[in-house]
Structure formats: structure tokens, C-alpha cells
Amino acid sequence: MNFANELETWLDRVRTRTVAFIAIVIAVCVTAVSCSGGGADTSQASAGIAPELVADYIHTVLAADRTAYTKHVVNRAQTLEGKAKDNGVLTVEATEGWQQTDGIPLPAQMFRLGSEIANESGYFTYNLISPWYINDNHAPKGDFEQTAMDETIATGEPYKGYQEVAGQQYFSALYPDKAVAEACVTCHNTHPIHLERYPDKLFEMDEVMGGIIINIPLAGA
Ligand code: HEC
């Protein structure tokens, strides 16, 4: 009797342990499957990531780099277009004619220099554009850019959509470039090319002065 009881208890223990063991094995398998499944899903998601999101990512990096250059490089220069800067600590001038002088590029020029290199990669293109452009390369081109620029100026919001250029489909997004500092307004309003081309256009603080256009080519359907 005692022996039978002991056997019963022992068998119970074995059963419990086996069940627990099987449960653990199942749990590990499920985790492995869901993890590898998750991995596959992620790679599919990144292959099919929404172009809108890609454009937002690219824009975030571009805007951050431009702000960082303005804040941490240009702001440290002692001179900006011939005018002394209060907080400047470096004996260098940030000037449009940086190549002719010993200066450093303005933020918009730095942005363009970067875009010229990146645009050669063939992955996507980006550019600063404005209806009141100083640099001719910044004129809005084609119907999409014209419409996008008008809408962005009217709403202050990004404009996104699809366009076809030379048989290639693109997802394009235009992000407003606003006069966030007094320097944006003064420099543009007093620039000789601006005065000559747009004598009646006086930028004001917070106004949309142009935009950053990003074009992402889409794989053929
Ligand atoms: C010290 C002068 C100066 C300051 C300050 C300045 N810009 Fe510019 N900006 C320029 C010049 C010069 C260009 C043309 C650059 C080039 O040759 O690519 C330009 C280009 C641009 C363009 C592209 C259209 C065009 O005119 O060619 C936009 C949009 C723009 N700036 C917006 C801004 C905003 C917004 C700010 C403030 C955050 C700002 N700028 C500050 C001088 C300035």
C-alpha cells in the first residue's frame, strides 16, 4: 500500500515535471517562431516601408544637420556677410562668396553642397526651392513643384504626392522652410539679387520662404 502510494506520488511528480518541461519546450518554440517570424516581418516591412515615412526620415536628418551647422559652426564665426557677430569666437566669415574669400559657406550653401553629392547616389534627390529664389537652381520645376510650393506657402504644411517624370514614378514631398530667425529675413530681404528680382517681396518672421523637396523614385509596378 505504502509502496503503491509512493509510486503514485512519484508518477505524479514525473507527470508534473514532464508537463512543465513540455510547456517550456513549447514556449521556447513559440518564441523562436514568433521571433524569426517577427524578423521576417520586419525585413518585409523595411522593404515595403511607406515612402511618406522615408521622406519624413530624410527630412529630419536634413533639417537637423542644417540647424546644427547654423548653431554650432556659423554662429561661432565672428562675421556674417560683413557684419560682426556678438557671440562669434572664430576669426572666420560666413559668406556667400566663401570660395573667393577665406570664409565658410552659408547654411543654404552648405545644404546645397550636400545635396549635390547625395543626388549623385541615385537613391533619391533633394533640394531647396522657392518662388523667390536667389540661386537659379532653386526655382520650382514642373507642375508638381509649382503646386506643392503654392500649397505649402498657403497652408504652412508639408505637401506630399506622386508624380511621374520621364516615365519614372516618384513619391515627392515638400516641407516648408520658414523664417525662424531674424537673420533669415534680413539677409534675404537685403540680398542684391532678391532686391533686383523681387523688389516688392519683403519676408516676415515665420513666413514660408521656400521648401525642401525630396523625390524618392519608386520601383516599377
Ligand atoms: C547671410 C545670408 C542668409 C541667411 C542668414 C539665410 N539665407 Fe537663405 N539663402 C541665402 C543665399 C545666398 C541663398 C542662395 C544659396 C545658394 O547659392 O545655393 C539662400 C537660399 C535660400 C533658399 C533657397 C531659395 C534661394 O533663395 O535660392 C531658401 C528657401 C532659404 N535660403 C531660406 C532661408 C531661411 C529659412 C533662413 C533662416 C533659417 C535663411 N535662408 C537664412 C542667404 C541667406
TrEMBL record:
Residues 55-217 form the Tll0287-like domain. The keyword Transmembrane applies. It comes from Rubidibacter lacunae KORDI 51-2. Pfam families: Tll0287-like. This is Tll0287-like domain-containing protein. Keywords: Membrane, Transmembrane, Transmembrane helix. The chain crosses the membrane at residues 20-40. It comes from the Bacteria. The lineage of its organism: Bacteria, Bacillati, Cyanobacteriota, Cyanophyceae, Oscillatoriophycideae.
